[in-house]
Records
---
Amino acid sequence: MTHPIRQIIALGGGGFSMEPDNPALDCYVLEQAGNERPKICFLPTASGDSDTYIANFYTAFARYECRPSHLQLFRRTPDLESLLLSQDILYVGGGNTRSMLAVWREWGLPAIFKNALEAGIVLAGISAGAICWFEQGVTDSMGGRYSALNCLGFLPGSCSPHYDGEADRRPAYHQMIAQGQIQPGIALDDGCAAHFTNGRLKQLVASRPEAKGYRLALDHGKVVETPLVTLKI
C-alpha cells in the first residue's frame, strides 16, 4: 500500500501578504497539491481572523486555478474536521503565534492537522504559519522581544522566519541557541520557503535571488551557521 507524501512548506516571508506582485511562492505551494484545481483553505487565526487579511487572500488566489476558502475561529465555527480534511492545502497566515496555538489547542486543531498531514494534505504557511509546524520557533509574540516558543512538533528542531527582514533576528536566534534556550534549526529569509517531505528537508525555494535559508547548529558551544542551497523560482 502506498502512503501519501507528508508535505510541509514553511515560508520565512513573502507570499501574497508580503509580495503581492510576486506570486512565485504561492504558485509553488499550489503546485505541490498534485491537483489541477486544488482546494486551499486559509487560516488567519494568528491575525485574529483579520477581515483585511482574508480579503487579500481571496484577491490573490482568485488569479489562480484553485478553489479558495477560509476558516475563522472567532465567529460561528463550522465542523472543523470535515472542512479541513476535505482540502488539498491548508495555508496558515502570520501574526501572533502564541495566541494562535492557544486557540488551536482549545479547538483540538493539532490532532486534525496531524491527520491532514498523514492524509497527504499540504500544510503551508508564512511566519507564524511557518514556525508552528516545528518543535520550536523564534517568535516576537510576547511584548515584541524575541523568545523561544514550543510549537506543534511535526518537524524537528526550531525555525526562525524573517531572517533578513528584521535586523535583530539573526543575533537573537544565535544567542538563544548558544544559551540552550532553543534547539538548533533552520532560518529563512523573507522570500524563502523550506519544503519538507516525510519529515525531511527536500529543498529550499526563493522568490528573490538573494533570499536564502540557513542551517544553524551548535558545535562545542559555538553556533555554526551554514547557508543552504536555495533554488530561485
---
Amino acid sequence: MCQRLGGCAADAGFGMVEMMAALIVIAIASAASAAFFITSLGGSNGNKTRTTAAYVADEELEQITSLPASDLVFGRTKTAVTALWATAAATRLKISSQDDESSTSDYDSVTTHTPYIPTQTSRTVNGTFFNLYNFIDVCWMDVVAGTCGPNQSPANGDSTTKEYRASVDVYWVSNGGCHAGCDYSTSTLIDPSSDPTFNSDLDIPVISSFTPSSFDTNNTLVDAATPCVVNGVSHPNSGDLVQVVTSSGLDAGATIRVSTGGASAQPTFYAVVGTSEIDFCLQTADTPGNYFVTVLNPDGGHANEPITENGIVTSAAWNSATQALTLTGTGFEPDATVADSGSSSCSTAGCITNNYSSGSFDTAVIPSYTPPTNGANDTITITNPDTTSITYTIYAPKVTSSGLTAYGKLPNNLAIAGSAFQSGMSVSLVSGNCTGSSVAYNSTGSASLSFTGGTVGTKCVFRFINSDGGSTSTFSVTNEPYPPQVSSVSPTFVEVSTTTTLTLVGTGFESGMTATTSGSSCSSATNVSVPGPYPSTSATLNLTSTGSTGSCTITLTNPDGGTTSFTETVTRISISGMTESSKTVRRTTTYTWTVTGTAFSTSGLPTVTLSETASGTTRSLTVSAVTVNSSSQLTFNATPFNTGRANYTVTVTNPSGSQASFTLSNFTVS
C-alpha cells in the first residue's frame, strides 16, 4: 500500500512483527506478577485467620474474667488440670516456669461438678477449626518486683499475694505459612482479694440490702408447704425467696451465683426487677456453714454477700412408753451433745445417730425426757464439737375451753380452743368411760375432739399430747342426757275426738321413753313404742284428742332425763269449695272435680259421695278415682246426669267417721 502511494512516513505505526514482540514481553511480565499476587493473597488469608484466632482467644478470656474469683476453678478436677499441664499448649506458655503447679487451688475436689470453664474446648469460625486450651493457675505476685511467679516465697525474700493467671491458647492448622500448626495465646491476672488490684474498670454492683442473710439447712424440707414466689409466679419446693437491692452498678442481664457451701440458686426462677433489684429462689444445702451469694454483671463486675447456713431440727417425736425424745434434722455432727433447759441431757455416747456423712437425716436422742405441760416450753440445744449449736423449742399446748359438756352414750364432736396445738397431736383418755376418742388439728388454737359419751352424770377426763411430747393439763367433759330430737311427725294433724297413731322420726329415742300432753285439744298420749337398737331414730305413740280444735303439746322424756316437746294440730274436717276442671260440662261425660277444705285424711282414703239435684229430683252420681293430694285438697271423677242448672252436693267422710259436706249451687250442665 505504501509503495503504491509512493512510500510511508516514519511514524506510520507498528508492523506485525513489532506487535508480536510486544505481546511476548507482556506475557513474560504477567507470569512473574501472578506468582506475587497468589503469594500476597495467601498472606492476607493467613492474617485474617490469625485475627479470628485472636478474637476467639479474647472472647474466651472475657468469659473467664466475668466469673467471681471463687468460681474460677469450679468443676476443674485434679485429673483434668494435670492432663492440661501435660499438653503442648502448656509448653508453649511455659506454665511450669511462671505458675504454681503444686497449688490445690487449681482444681476442684468435687468430681461431680460441671465446670464453668472447661480445660479444653473447640470452636469453628469461618470454616477454620480452633482448639482452645484454658489455663487458670495460681501465681504469686512479688509486691516489690511486680512480677507474678510460681513461688509463694521467692529467694529475694519479698512478700507475695495470691493471684490467678488466666491464659488461653488457641491452636489451628493452616494451609499457609504455619501448615504444621499455628497458635495464638493471651493471658491476664485476676486478683481474688476483696479489694482487687486488677479488673478495676468493671461495673461493680453496690448492694444496699440483702434479705434474708441466713438460712436453715435443707430448705426444701422446711419450706415445702410455702412456695417461693417471684414476680407473682409460685415455685413450690424451690427454697426461700431472696431479695437483693442495689443502689448502683446493677446492669441489665445480671445473674446470681452461689459460690460455695454446696447450695444452688434456681437459675430459671430469678428475675431482675427494674435496674435496682434481683429476686430469686435459693435452695440451700444440707451442710451448715458459710458461703457467698454473688451478683454478677455481664462484664464480670460482681459483689458478694455472705450467707450463714444453720443446722435445723425439722421434727421431734416423743415416745410415751420409753420416755425417749428423738430430734430429726440436719447439721448434727458426730460427738455432739444434747441438753435441754430442764434437767434432761445426753452425753456423746448414743445421742447422735445417722450423721451427715451417712446421707440420711441426722437424729439426736434424749433417752429419758420429761416434756413441758400446759403452755410451758423447753429449749433443747445440740452443741457440735465446732461450737456451733442448733436449738429446738418444745411448746406445750394449753386448753382454754371450759364448761365442756357432751351427750352420754352418743357420738360427740366438740370444738376445743387453746394454744400451741400441733398437727399430728393425739388425745389420751385419763379417766371416765367415754370410748373411741380422737382429735383433729384445725389450727394452733383450735382442735376437734370426737368420742362416744359415757354414762350420763359422769365426767370423762382427757389430755392432748403433741408429737414432740408437749401436753396440756387434763380437762374434763361432763356427760349430760341427750334430749330426743323430733324431725318429722306423721300425720301432721289429728281430728277432734279421735285416737290417732303418730309416727315420729328423729334421734335419741330410748327404750322406756314416755309421753305426756298439755292443752285442751288432747287428753293423752299412750302406747309409746321405740324400736331398738338404742338410741333409735323412730318411735310411735297414740294421741287421743278432745272435741276442741287447736294445738296439742306432746312432751317426750327418756329414762335418763333427756326431754323434748313438739306440737300437733287438732282440727275437724271441713269443705270450703268445689270446682270442675272443664269450662263446659256436658251430660254423660266424666269430669274431674276438685274439693278444697281441711283435715282430709292422708293416712287412710276418705269416702266421697256426690248427689245431683235438678227440677226437684235428687240423684246419687257414681264417684271414682278419689285422690287425696293433701290434707286440704282431694279430687275425684263423676259424670253429670241432667242438663241445665243443677245443685251438686259433695260429702267427704274420713276413716275416723267424721265428715263434711258442701253444695255447689246452680251449676250449669250443657
---
Amino acid sequence: LGMVLFAATLAILSGRRMRPRATWLIPVIAVIWANIHGSFVLAPVLAGLAWLDDVADRSPRARTTLLAALLTSLATLVTPFGPGAWRYALGLVANRQVTAQTSEWLPPTLGDVPGVLFWASVVLVGLVALLLARGSARTTWPALLGLATFAGLGAMASRGIAWWPGYAVVALAGLAAATAGPSTRVLSRRLRGSPLNAAVGAVLIIAGIILVPAWRPVDPGTGAPSGLLGHAPPGVTGALRALASPGDRIWNPQVWGSWLEFSVPLPRYALDSRIEVIPSQVWSDAEVVATGGTGWSDVLDQVGATIVIVDAESVQLRAVLAGSPAWVVAYSDGDGSIWTRAARQFASTPGVRGDSDS
C-alpha cells in the first residue's frame, strides 16, 4: 500500500504543471499514507524535491508547490500518534539493534541478485542522467539531487531499493524532456496510440491474469495457493497445527513468526516481524539460542518454552537440542524441525513422531 501511494504521489507531482489542481491531493495522500506505513516520510521528501525543481526552473508555481509541501508535512501528523509517528519511523532506521537483525535492513551487496540489479541500475541511471544534464537547456540539479537521495536510500538498506526504480524513471523522463527543449517540456497535445505499446499492455494483462493465485493448487500445509507465500514452511506449519495447544509457548525463528501466529494463532511465540518493539535483551537471547551458545537452555527455561522450532540453517541449535535429554524431535523436514519438551505429552499424527512422557 505504501508503494501504491508513493506511485500516486510521483504521478501527481510529475504532472503538476499540466494538472496543477491535482497537487492539492498530495496532503490527502499523506494523511492516508501516515496511517498505513512508516514510509510516509517520503511524501514530504517528494513534495520538497518538486518545489526545488520549480525554484530551479523559475516556475511561477513555485510558491504553490512550497505550500503543498508544507501542508503535506503537516498532514503526516494526522495520526493517533501525532509527531510520534515520525519518532517511530526515524527511530527505527537509527536502531542498530533492530536493523542488524534482519536482512532487509542490511545494505545491498553484489553477492545477491537484488544487490547486483540495484548497483548496476545506479551506475546506468547515473551515466544517463549526467549525459542528459549536460545537454539540458535548464538547471537540472534538483533531479540529480533526487536521484542521489533515492540511490542513497537503496544503498543504506535493501528495503530502500523499492523506491529507487519509480523515482529514477520519472527523473530521467524529466531530464530527457528538458534536453529535448521547451516544445516538449509540457505535453499539451494528445499523443497518438502505438501498436507496440498496445501489444505490450495486452501481454502484461494476460500475464497478470495467468499469475493470479486463484489458478494455483492449494498447498495442504499452508492452506494457500502454491508458491504464493515466502517464509511459510508448509510441513512445519502442518505439524505445528497438529501439535500445538493454547498453553504452549513457542521459541521460533523470527522470520517465520508472523506466519506462524497467523496460521496457528493459539500458542504464544517469542519472535515475529514487529522487530522494532522486541526488547534488545530478547534479541540477545535469540542470538544465544540460535547459536547454541552458553546458557541457551536457561533462556528457554526462563521463558517457559514448551516447543522450539528450528530452521534448516540453525545447525548449532539443532545439535544442542539433539544432545539434550530435555528435548525430543517431533517433526523434521528440509525446511526445519520441531522440538518439544521431553516431559510434554503430544499426540501422534501423520508425519509426526509420537513419544511418551519421559
---
Amino acid sequence: MRIANPDRLLTAADLSATLLFAIEGATAAVLAGADLFGIVVIAFVTALGGGIIRDVVIGDLPVAAVRWVRYPAVALSGAAIVIVLYQSVERLAPELIMVLDACGLGLFCVAGAAKARDLGLSVLPAALVATITGCGGGMIRDVLLNQIPIVLRQHIYAVAALAGAVAMLLLDRLGAPRWLSMSVGAAVATTLRVLSVVLNWNLPEIH
C-alpha cells in the first residue's frame, strides 16, 4: 500500500482546515448580519489567520497564505458556498458552526504541529505553535464580530487543540507513520471539542 508523502498530508490537512474554517467564519458573519464584503472578510481571517500567525512565528516567510494562491482561493470558495446557500446555513447554523469548527480545529492543530516539527522545533514549542494555528483565526473572527473570543470563555477549545497536537507529536516522536499520527491527533482534538459542547464541559472559573 502506498503511503502519502508527509508534505502532501500536511498540505491536505492545511487546505481542508482552511475550507472548513472559511465556511464556519462566513456562517458566523451571516448570523452577525454582515454584508457580502463582511462575509468574505470574516471567512478569510478565520480561515487564514491562524496559519499566518503560525508561519510568522516559525519564520516560514513569505507565509503560505500569500505564497500559494490555493489558500486564498480555498478561503474564497468557502465564503462563496455560504453566500450561495445562505438559507440552508441559517437553518443549520448552530450545529454547522460547531461541527465545522471542531473538524477545522483538529486539522489545523495537527497541520501546525507537523509543520513546526518539520522545521526542527521540539515537542513543547511545536505544540504551542499548533495551538496558535488552531485558535488564531477564530480569535480574530470573534474580535471583528465584537465578541469575546470563544477560546477565552466557553467550553474546551485551546485545550482540545493542545491535546490533539501533543497526541500527534508524541506518536510522531515514537516513529509512527505521519498519516497515523496526524489522524489520531486530529481525532483527539475534534472529539474533545465536540464532547465539550455536547456535555457542556468548561474549565474552572475564578469568582
